[in-house]
Inverse folding.
């Protein structure tokens, strides 16, 4: 099997690190060849805070995935989340020198390049620049301006910004684990690609990915990403609350949450009790399920309300921006009993649990299609897409070289422009990845 057809997603989470190996099958669906997962020790709220521990966890997950797939992993696509991510809306325009020519990709690149020169706060770096819609000579709501005539091209952008140091730390961990960084992607975007259907993105939908340390939000409407946010709470704070509220150790709190936890207190009768073995030589503790779900409910309500504030910030309450497909919940935290009902109750929006089987091959294992793995599946898909782009570019360049050789003359201005354009066309994420790589190489 060719190694260049497989892609590896590495989801560096707060609770777990997942390495996932996948490839496209002949039907264009993603087939998962191996999964490895390890407990994540060096990450807090989505940000690496202990490099050595994170490297060990990455290596463990990677070895497990390699063993299952029988392949050696070299390049990985890694997700970035964490409390330092923020997003902003920005509009920018360029005036074209020659309005006799139609707008082409170069114009759009020029415009996007300009957004990249935005002055950020110290220590911040732009991760994604996502065009929303364009205006040509004041004519609004243009989805695809290429091929149109016009002198002034403007666009609204969704700009995602993160902390340089955090991005570099992740790069550092990957590199020190003996892996190459193939790409960096925003985790809410990866989860969204794995879980949402195109129809939902058109109709308008909010994806809420409840992880261990953070809750990620991505809002889509008319097929375009409109808003992203990372809220620095996740399943772990719920476990913390249970631990404090019931005076038990973390391991027990986590098990209680998973086995008996519910987000809706009305569910449990007063007399339902769980007995928890006491610490060495102490009496066992008795905890009522009603109390347990009250503790969980209080914290989950807080998380959902914060997410709902972000959804309202996007403008969900305006008729034109209404999210018709409602909310999709994914991530490990979405498996909490009765969470769907609670979210519908708080937001008044239709809600479903999102499983990452939208683009997976039909015979995938059940555990792969668990919401736990949504981000990892999305990262694999992202890596495959990136490879596809590189392959196409390479073919185009090879074809151009052949033509140039047959002509055996100086390349025409047009070919030079084409070659330039291919250099330009590399997405900013690739450029960001290059920057992180260069930085790491020079820092050695």
């Amino acid at each position: 099997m060719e190694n260049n057809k497989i892609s590896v997603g590495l989801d560096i989470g707060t609770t777990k690190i997942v390495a996932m190996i996948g490839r496209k099958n002949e039907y264009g669906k993603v087939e998962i060849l191996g999964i490895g997962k390890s407990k994540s020790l060096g990450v807090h709220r989505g940000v690496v805070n202990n490099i050595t521990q994170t490297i060990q966890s990455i290596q463990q997950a990677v070895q497990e995935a390699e063993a299952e797939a029988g392949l050696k992993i070299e390049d990985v696509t890694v997700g970035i989340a964490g409390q330092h991510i923020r997003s902003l809306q920005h509009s920018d325009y360029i005036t074209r020198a020659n309005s006799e020519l139609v707008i082409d990709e170069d114009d759009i690149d020029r415009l996007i390049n300009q957004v990249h020169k935005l002055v950020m706060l110290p220590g911040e770096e732009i991760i994604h620049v996502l065009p929303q819609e364009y205006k040509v000579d004041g004519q609004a709501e243009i989805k695809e301006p290429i091929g149109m005539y016009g002198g002034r091209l403007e666009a609204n952008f969704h700009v995602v910004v993160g902390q340089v140091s955090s991005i570099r730390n992740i790069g550092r961990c990957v590199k020190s684990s003996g892996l190459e960084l193939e790409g960096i992607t925003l985790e809410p975007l990866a989860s969204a690609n794995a879980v949402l259907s195109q129809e939902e993105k058109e109709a308008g939908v909010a994806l809420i990915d409840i992880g261990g340390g953070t809750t990620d939000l991505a809002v889509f409407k008319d097929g375009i990403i409109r808003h992203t946010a990372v809220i620095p709470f996740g399943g772990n704070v719920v476990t913390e609350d249970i631990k404090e509220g019931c005076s038990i150790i973390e391991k027990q709190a986590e098990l209680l949450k998973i086995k008996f936890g519910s987000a809706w207190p009305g569910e449990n009768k007063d007399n339902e009790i769980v007995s928890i073995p006491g610490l060495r030589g102490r009496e066992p503790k008795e905890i009522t399920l009603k109390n347990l779900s009250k503790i969980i409910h209080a914290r989950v309500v807080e998380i959902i309300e914060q997410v709902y504030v972000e959804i309202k910030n996007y403008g969900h309450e305006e008729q034109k921006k209404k999210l018709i497909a409602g909310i999709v919940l994914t991530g490990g935290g979405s498996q909490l009993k009765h969470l769907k009902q609670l979210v519908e109750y708080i937001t008044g929006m239709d809600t479903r649990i999102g499983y990452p089987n939208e683009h997976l091959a039909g015979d995938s294992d059940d555990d792969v299609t668990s919401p736990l793995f949504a981000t990892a599946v999305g990262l694999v898909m992202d890596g495959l897409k990136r490879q596809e782009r590189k392959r196409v570019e390479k073919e185009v360049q090879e074809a151009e070289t052949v033509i140039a050789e047959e002509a055996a003359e100086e390349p025409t201005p047009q070919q030079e422009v084409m070659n330039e354009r291919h250099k330009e066309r590399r997405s900013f994420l690739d450029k960001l990845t290059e920057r992180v790589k260069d930085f790491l190489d020079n820092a050695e």
About this structure: The CA atoms of residues 24 and 30 lie 5 Å apart.
